[in-house]
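Quick note —
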Amino acid sequence: MRNYLFITGLALIVFTYGCASTTDTSVTTTTTTSTTTTTQSLQFAVETVDINNVGADTSITIDNADVIHISYDDMENGALKYASGESGAWTLTTVENDGHSYHGQTAIDTTKNNKAYISYRGYLYLKCANDVNGSWSTAVVDPYFASSGYKTSIALDSNDRPHISYTYWDGAYVVKYTYQKSNNFWATTTIETAASDYSSIAIDTNDNVHISYYDIFNADLKYATNSSGAWVSTTIDSNGDVGRYTAIALDSGNKVHISYFDFSGNLKYATNASGSWALTTIEADDVGGFTDIVIDHHDGAHISYYDSVDQSLKYARNISGSWETFQVDSGKVGQYNSLAIDSHDKPHFSYFRDSTINYNRNLKYAKQIN
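Predicted structure written out below.
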């Protein structure tokens, strides 16, 4: 383990780097295929939140007061942006405008007091922003190499401390994990020393960390947790090239739910809710990119994803024992989607509208209205 000290104009920040003592395990899985598909029974209200080459790498969360918070890239200006409020009444804020803060996936979460934390890739490095004190502040989290902070994911623990998983380049892409141990101290661990990418993080009720990710070297979906006191990494799905665009969520019993992409063109879902791992193909035929997953207050699973054939945003849910799928919006939309559930278990989506014209490359938002 190596320690690196960096002096800033405000504080002494100590970054601790090391490799996890990760034990690799394999599991026996059962596999099913969902055949229930619905397209008309739900209605969604759709609107544009911001325009002019913005909206990629978006992330959405909903706080305790049902206020919506969205982080996203402003590619036109190289800035990190933030939208908050509710449908039709958005407040747009530029969090950082250094000309470079648009290179990697943003992720957002909110505290118990409804303040926001955003992880993102700023100028070359992993960064974290927050408005805990009433105005936005930003900090470099991983400055070890000028290649950190790709595809970030963030979750706050019971003390509102941020935990971040992300992709890091050190001759190959690898998944790393860091958390804010104290105000100016970030402890950082390499989760997977082999080539890896597309991580997602969740924190359980005991403040244990759970991370799903894609093992590039073996083309597998993997899952790592420190819930036993040491990091253990498990191969969940190794049937073909699987695990890209992974997203993770936990239910009320701290059981794991993971959505991910099968490179043969399928949206897949893995869970250990029954006590053993079960894998489900929810929909096939060039769908499942850019997935996100949340678990509602009744432990129902909700997944947003991209249909590359229709270039549409789609939504799947399992709230009554079987999977249903819906089209939320269409017309070159749905990439970089993110999903959140409000206090009434209704889904809300942030996502990107693509175009050959920069002015029409926009941040969009949708919600269920029935």
